[in-house]
Amino acid sequence: MVEQFVGTWKLTASENFDEYMKAIGVGFATRQVGNMAKPNLVISVDDAGLISMRSESTFKTKEIKFKLNEEFDETTADDRQTKTLITFESGKLVQKQMWGGKSTTLEREIQDGKLTAKCTIGDVVALRTYEKGA
């Protein structure tokens, strides 16, 4: 269930994220900021099943609200305009973003009490690990 994702998660590790940002077309200056940011990820669900996913850092706070299996328009933290679909498959929140003939997938799952986000575009994979905050 999505409920296991609810809470505040603090970024503790990030592998290959610069390569991932390059692959999706993020410019150098924005990547520098993106690499320094250690965002908190705040996930909540309301009574109507609307899920909120908020990334909070000293640089930028970005929030998306969505229902599972319903495509929506997203403006990403790096200002891409995407068609985004989030599904729940095999215990994972799978976010697919499509724009300009490209697509990327972000798979979030809970493992050993940590939230991992696997970001994939083509053959480039980044892994970000979050631990639950107090």
- Give the overall silhouette: globular
**Termini Cα gap:** 21 Å
Q: Strand order within the widest sheet?
A: 4-3-2-1-10-9-8-7-6-5
The helical percent reads 10-25%
CATH class categorisation: Mainly Beta
> Any idea what the radius of gyration is?
14 Å
Annotation field: number of helices: 2
Task: Report the sheet with the most strands, covering strand number, pairing sense and barrel closure.
Answer: 10 strands, antiparallel
Q: CATH superfamily, please? A: Calycin beta-barrel core domain
Annotation keywords:
about 130 residues; mainly beta; ten-stranded antiparallel β-sheet; 10 strands; globular; Lipocalin; single chain
Can you put this structure into words, describing what you see?
Helices cover 13% and strands 56% of the residues. It has 134 residues and is mainly beta. It has one domain: Calycin beta-barrel core domain (Lipocalin, Beta Barrel), CATH 2.40.128. A ten-stranded antiparallel beta sheet has the order 4-3-2-1-10-9-8-7-6-5. Strand 8 and strand 9 form a beta hairpin. Helix 1 runs antiparallel to helix 2 (28-36). The relative contact order is 0.22. The mean pLDDT is 95.
